[in-house]
């Protein structure tokens, strides 16, 4: 008797990133090849709560490898354990556990196992189903590259390419106008995007959450460059970067979200501080969701295809509740729950930080002074 399931569900949860469609394509094509039927669940766990599904055949995933976003849609608010419902009388929120309802939806569609493509929050949502006997195989995605247990996630390389191209464009206008240009990039509490895009674009100052910065040091670097005839400076700042002894700048706190803190605003604040301190005109650009959109780069298409293939291999071998990861350049897997609640931050002694310092890039601290 085959240990492989005959019918699986697939969903994409959390914030989107380039490469999600490449994983869906890989999963569906391989499943169809092995006579496994695939049910696509729309908008992450929300589709399970609301019973919104589509049958996915090989034809349905043809021509999606290069497409950004996700053909299934996504949601970063839906959590079956804590589903927010507005009360009819006063509109206030109450939270309901919809886990059993979702189990019934899966039974109705004959779903025996799930491929769950998402981040930390999505994997946490999958756990109650894994405990109830649904084999959940996690495929990690994030442009932030901060998944604990995996040295690379798909979406990251594309985000770095996009940010690098944008910073290159900002570079020439900064030089023409003798300005400081501050470019704010995403990454949440991890500075991977800022570090890689900053090094790739030859930024003068890179600010990451892992290294609190000093405004005096930043002003010193900018003023020194100016005195040496470099009348412009490029600062790449991660949205989660903060001054020494200070706090991250929060744009909004979102009600009913498993991920309630929306970071943003440090670029604007920093440009003002630099202009006040140096007298040099300083402007800012926030790259925002531009980094999450568009076609995945070749490296992400390859990685996403490999992740999908590894997930299907695990399902067909009957391995249960695993998370696909990349370690030391090799695809492998860990327990689904192992990465929950942990982040992979940039170590202060990361070789790329040392390499950047050796080409006189400042991290806004006094280590490179
Ligand atoms: O985790 C990916 C990410 O793009 C972060 O870099 C960013 O902080 C966050 O998601 C933004 O989320 P949202 O699109 O929900 O505002």
Features:
5-stranded mixed β-sheet; Rossmann fold; 2 domains; single chain; alpha/beta; 10 helices; 34% helix; 369 residues; binds 6-O-phosphono-beta-D-fructofuranose
The number of distinct structural domains comes to 2
Content-based structural category: alpha/beta
- The parts where pLDDT drops under 50 for at least 5 residues are none
Instruction: Output the CATH topology of the largest domain.
Output: Rossmann fold
Distance between the termini: 67 Å
Report the CATH C-level class of the largest domain: Alpha Beta
- Shape by Cα distribution: elongated
Radius of gyration: 22 Å
- Overall mean pLDDT score? 96
Concise summary:
This protein is of the alpha/beta class.
Notes on the protein architecture:
By secondary structure, the chain is of the alpha/beta class. It has two domains: 7-154 and 294-339, Rossmann fold (3-Layer(aba) Sandwich), CATH 3.40.50; 159-293 and 347-358, Phosphofructokinase domain (Rossmann fold, 3-Layer(aba) Sandwich). The chain has ten helices and 15 strands. The strands form five sheets. The protein has a five-stranded mixed sheet with strand order 3-2-1-6-7, sandwiched between helices. Strand 14 (322-327) and strand 15 form a beta hairpin. Helix 7 (215-227) packs across helix 8 (266-278). The longest helix has 22 residues, at 156-177. 50% of the residues are buried. The model has no long low-confidence stretch (mean pLDDT 96). It binds 6-O-phosphono-beta-D-fructofuranose (F6P).
């Amino acid at each position: 008797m085959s240990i492989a399931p005959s019918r699986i569900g697939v969903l994409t949860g959390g914030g989107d990133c380039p490469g999600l469609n490449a994983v869906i394509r890989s999963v569906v094509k391989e499943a169809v090849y092995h006579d496994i039927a695939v049910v696509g669940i729309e908008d992450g766990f929300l589709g399970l709560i609301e019973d919104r599904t589509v049958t996915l055949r090989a034809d349905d995933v043809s021509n999606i490898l290069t497409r950004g976003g996700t053909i299934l849609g996504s949601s970063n608010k839906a959590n079956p354990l804590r589903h927010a419902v507005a009360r009819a009388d006063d509109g206030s929120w109450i939270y309901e556990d919809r886990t059993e309802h979702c189990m019934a939806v899966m039974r109705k569609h004959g779903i025996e196992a799930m491929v769950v493509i998402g981040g930390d929050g999505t994997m946490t949502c999958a756990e109650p189903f894994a405990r109830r006997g649904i084999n959940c195989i996690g495929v990690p995605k994030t442009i932030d590259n901060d998944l604990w247990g995996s040295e690379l996630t798909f979406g990251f390389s594309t985000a770095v390419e996009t940010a690098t191209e944008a910073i290159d464009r900002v570079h020439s206008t900064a030089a023409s106008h003798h300005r400081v240009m501050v470019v704010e990039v995403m990454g949440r509490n991890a500075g991977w995007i800022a570090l890689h895009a900053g090094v790739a674009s030859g930024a003068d100052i890179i600010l990451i959450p892992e290294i609190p910065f000093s405004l005096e040091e930043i002003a010193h670097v900018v003023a020194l460059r100016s005195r040496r005839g470099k009348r412009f400076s490029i600062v790449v700042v991660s949205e989660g970067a903060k001054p020494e002894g200070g706090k991250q700048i929060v744009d909004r706190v979102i009600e009913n979200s498993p991920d309630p803190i929306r970071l943003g605003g440090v670029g604007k604040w920093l440009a003002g501080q630099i202009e006040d301190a140096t007298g040099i005109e300083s402007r800012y650009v926030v790259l925002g969701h531009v980094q999450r959109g568009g076609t995945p780069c070749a490296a992400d298409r390859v990685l996403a295809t490999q992740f999908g293939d590894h997930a299907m291999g695990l399902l067909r071998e009957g391995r249960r509740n695993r998370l696909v990861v990349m370690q030391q350049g090799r695809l492998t897997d860990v327990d689904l729950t192992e990465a929950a609640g942990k982040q992979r931050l940039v170590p202060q002694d990361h070789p790329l930080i040392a390499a950047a310092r050796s080409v006189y890039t400042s991290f806004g601290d006094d280590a490179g002074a």
